[in-house]
Amino acid sequence: MARRAPRRTQEKPEDRIAHMRMLRDLQDEAPGFFAFIPLVYHPEHNALHKIVPNITSEEDILRTVAVARLFLDNFPHIKAYWIQMGIETAMKALHAGASDLDGTIIEEKITHAAGATVPVGMSPERMKALIAGEGLVPVERDAKYETY
Predict the structure, then answer these.
(1) In terms of Cα–Cα distance, which of 90, 85, 80, 71 is closest to 28?
(2) Facing residues of 79 across strands?
(3) C-alpha distances in angstroms, 113 versus 41, 53, 83, 117, 134?
(4) Residues near 98 by beta carbon (within 8 Å), at least 6 away in sequence
């Protein structure tokens, strides 16, 4: 009787590089991406957490941001989406290659339904204070990265 190969449930670093290569090539072919947003998978409220617990470490998140900044040289921005990464990790990501802290929303529901434990929203004032606390200059911008 033939045995089935086990299904791979977790993305490997080489998978991420292959995905980034596709994005970089597409951006070269048809520019239009403003930013790359490395999203963190939250398995807490689905069956995957039983198979692969603690799927993404802070080190892994920061490494992905740093590699993206270097590899996606044709992407003007790399985002640190604090709702996915957590606030502390997002602050570190600003020093690892992220050029944008994202997520001034009133009440985020999708990532929280998946298991996120960060606050459900953040005011622009709080975000500015966090950025300034990192020794960086906060700048407000719109969806097209035009600053005000």
Answers:
(1) 71
(2) 100
(3) 12, 17, 12, 10, 30
(4) 65, 69, 78, 79, 80, 90
Q: What is the pLDDT along the chain (148 residues), one digit of tens a residue?
A: 566 555 555 678 899 999 999 999 999 999 999 999 998 877 777 776 666 665 678 999 999 999 999 999 999 999 998 888 889 999 999 999 999 998 766 666 666 666 666 766 788 898 999 999 999 999 988 888 898 8
Residue 105 CA to residue 45 CA, distance in Å, equals 22
Tokens found for residue 140: 């407000």
Write out the two tokens for 136: 């960086």
Q: Are 102 and 37 in contact (CB under 8 A)?
A: yes
Are the C-beta atoms of residues 70 and 79 closer than 8 Å to each other? no
100 sits in which H/E element: strand 100-102
Q: How far apart are CA 98 and CA 78, in angstroms?
A: 5
The residues, ordered by sequence, that sit 6+ positions from 16 with a Cβ below 8 Å of its Cβ are 64, 67
